[in-house]
């Protein structure tokens, strides 16, 4: 027994010494910083002139620490963990509306057809100003949480619609958020499937849509991943598996920690490895969407059409913390079968830095086509209308296109789906709306001109170069006006989408895509031309 104890003690000492030697620098530095922080935290709580909220103070410290990393490494409190579970399940108890919380109200951004919000009479563009007895502007927390509750419970809402206040009774209920909200058989026996998110039911819903379309006569498929922000990596593999044979690598991950290096291969028998396939993406297609489009592009199984994807090649994993909280930490990068990582941004001291084209590395697809890393997934066929310039992004960020569309509907209350036609008058009205609402598109050049003015003024040169700076600003304003003209087609598409969604839900938007969408037309044309399709994939 003594010998056994001595042997165990020797092993423990050896392992401890190894760990101490390997990690001692980090250990002492971490211990030192935690001790300093703990003492500071205690002194502030005990001695600060005003009363402080310890929990709020700690949340601020946590957020500030994580801000120095990438934006996907985040801290979740108990409520946020529950919300994440709900989102991934695809089913939740609520009202069935996409909302934006502001200090004054809750803005209804989108409504699911047949949902509790829809049944209650809420419309896109409505502003909820009170929930029960609580005024939104007086509520210090996220007022959107007040809309959630047990199924079949009622809540009284006061809603501002077109500057008129209405009272509505809303009954909460189970809301099923479909991963495949729309699919349809189009001309030339083309099956069209929209996949909006990679929730737990994503692959099963795609399979169901695919099988039904084939029963209806589909001989070629369009899988629409535009505006799909991603979701579960496992579902990305399962969706790819529908078209890729069992045992094929779809993605693999690399990390600084060996155990996080994993390969994800298809596990099931494919449904169809031969049917011609196109995938639609845009700048809002991210993460799992990029795994599917990138892997099927690398394997020469599908032609990718649209605009360059978002470029998120980072993998997160939740780590349990104390008291029911979690941290979602970036642990690795994922790579497509050819070996490329599509991550478009590097992060240094909390700042994002976009990779330059000269930093991209060339890789080869299964048939030898050239593809590149570092900038998202570049489509095989680029469609300009799907690209979003800085001007368009600024308009979307400030909700200008959305607000204009709501305003347009309020001025045309009798507008019906069958009567709506986009025309030049709408673009002219949009320009007026921008001016009336004082939208200012500030470019990097504008910022540099302002910086130059400040420097010139501090060095007493401003008076001598003032006229030159004014002329420069005038020329820049002309360029910005021309930029607006160049974006007419993209703005037409975005405004039309918003107006149709208000009067006909998401279904109207998807129908518009199938009837007037340039990207879908390009996809159908390619699928109908078997030689061009094969040539792009490197089969000729």
Automatic annotation (TrEMBL):
Highest taxon of the lineage: Bacteria
Cross-referenced PROSITE patterns: PDZ
GO biological process: proteolysis; signal transduction
Keyword set, alphabetical order: Coiled coil, Hydrolase, Protease, Serine protease
Every PDZ domain range: 83-163
Record-linked Pfam families: CtpB_N-like, PDZ_6, Peptidase_S41
GO CC terms of this entry: outer membrane-bounded periplasmic space
Example GO molecular function: endopeptidase activity
Coiled-coil residue windows: 462-497
InterPro entries for the chain: ClpP/crotonase-like_dom_sf, CtpA/B_N, PDZ, PDZ_6, PDZ_sf, Peptidase_S41A, Tail-specific_protease
Family membership noted in the UniProt record: Belongs to the peptidase S41A family.
The protein's name: Carboxyl-terminal processing protease
Organism: Psychroflexus sediminis
């Amino acid at each position: 027994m003594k010998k056994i104890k001595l042997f165990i003690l020797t092993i423990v000492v050896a392992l401890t010494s190894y760990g101490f030697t390997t990690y001692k620098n980090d250990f002492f530095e971490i211990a030192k910083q935690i001790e300093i922080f703990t003492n500071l935290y205690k002194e502030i709580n005990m001695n600060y002139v005003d009363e402080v909220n310890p929990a709020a103070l700690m949340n601020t410290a946590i957020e500030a620490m994580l801000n120095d990393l990438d934006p996907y490494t985040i801290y979740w409190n108990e409520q946020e963990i529950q919300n994440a579970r709900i989102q991934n399940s695809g089913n939740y108890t609520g009202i069935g509306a996409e909302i934006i919380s502001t200090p004054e109200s809750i803005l209804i951004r989108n409504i699911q057809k047949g949902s509790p919000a829809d049944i209650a009479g809420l419309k896109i563009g409505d502003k909820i100003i009170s929930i029960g007895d609580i005024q939104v502007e007086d509520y210090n927390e996220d007022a959107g949480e007040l809309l959630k509750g047990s199924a079949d419970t009622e809540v009284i809402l006061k809603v501002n619609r077109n500057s008129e206040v209405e009272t509505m009774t809303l009954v909460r209920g189970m809301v099923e958020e479909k991963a495949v909200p729309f699919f349809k058989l189009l001309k030339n026996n083309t099956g069209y499937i929209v996949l909006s998110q990679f929730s737990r039911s994503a692959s099963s819903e795609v399979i169901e849509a695919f099988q039904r379309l084939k029963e209806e006569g589909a001989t070629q498929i369009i899988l629409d991943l535009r505006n799909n922000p991603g979701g579960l990596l496992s579902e990305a593999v399962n969706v790819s598996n529908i078209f890729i044979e069992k045992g094929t690598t779809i993605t693999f991950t690399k990390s600084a920690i060996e155990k996080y290096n994993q390969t994800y291969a298809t596990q099931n028998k494919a449904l169809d490895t031969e049917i011609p396939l196109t995938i639609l993406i845009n700048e809002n297609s991210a993460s799992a969407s990029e795994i599917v489009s990138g892997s099927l592009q690398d394997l020469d199984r599908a032609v990718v059409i649209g605009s360059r994807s978002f470029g998120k090649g980072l993998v997160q994993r939740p780590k349990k913390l104390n008291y029911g909280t979690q941290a979602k930490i970036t642990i690795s990068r994922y790579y497509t079968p050819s070996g490329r990582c599509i991550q478009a941004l590097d992060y240094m001291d909390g700042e994002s830095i976009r990779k330059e084209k000269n930093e991209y590395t060339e890789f080869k697809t299964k048939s030898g086509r050239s593809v590149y890393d570092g900038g998202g997934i570049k489509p095989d066929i680029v469609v300009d209308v799907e690209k979003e310039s800085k001007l368009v992004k600024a308009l979307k960020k400030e909700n200008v296109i959305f607000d204009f569309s709501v305003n347009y509907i309020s001025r045309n209350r009798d507008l019906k789906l069958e009567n709506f036609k986009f025309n030049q008058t709408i673009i002219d009205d949009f320009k007026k709306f921008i001016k009336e609402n004082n939208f200012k598109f500030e470019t990097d050049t504008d910022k540099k001109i302002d910086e130059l003015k400040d420097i010139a003024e501090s060095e007493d040169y401003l008076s001598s170069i003032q006229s030159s700076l004014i002329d420069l600003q005038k020329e820049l304003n002309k360029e910005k006006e021309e930029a607006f003209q160049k974006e007419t087609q993209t703005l037409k598409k975005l405004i039309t989408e918003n107006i149709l969604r208000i009067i006909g839900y998401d279904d109207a938007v998807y129908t518009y895509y199938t009837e007037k969408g340039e990207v879908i037309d390009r996809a159908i044309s390619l699928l109908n031309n078997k030689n061009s399709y094969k040539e792009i994939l490197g089969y000729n």
